[in-house]
Amino acid sequence: MAEFIFKDMLQKCEREREFIVDSSATSSEEIWNGIGNPVYSSAKAELAEHGISCEGKRAVQLKKSDYDKYDLFLCMDSRNVTNTLRIFSSDPDNKVRRLLENKDVSDPWYTDRFDIAYSDIYEGCCQLLESL
After folding, report:
1. pTM of the predicted model, to two decimals?
2. Is residue 128 classed exposed, middle or buried when 0-12, 13-18 and 19+ CB atoms within 10 A define those classes?
């Protein structure tokens, strides 16, 4: 959801050409035989309630080589930070961090509260945009 929320924010302030925004999975749970699942239907529905489309997106696996391609890796929770650091082996440029500094994004996979996850992600994306 974060990829699409942030892209929507960038578009609204006419800054979408300044950034490359993409999302990747830190595990292979959503990828089968090299093909990623589409965005989970409840996440898709929550985004649609805010006028945001995620059509065509499929899960992709984060790769070690991605470290040199991007300037920043924002993780939704501490577990994703751990997984990301495991994939990269190290973080010499301090590129890996949580989207929210002081807490994890509420995980809707366990709570089915995609509205709370959206709110957390929106807050983090607002803070990120302000810092840029």
Report:
1. 0.93
2. middle
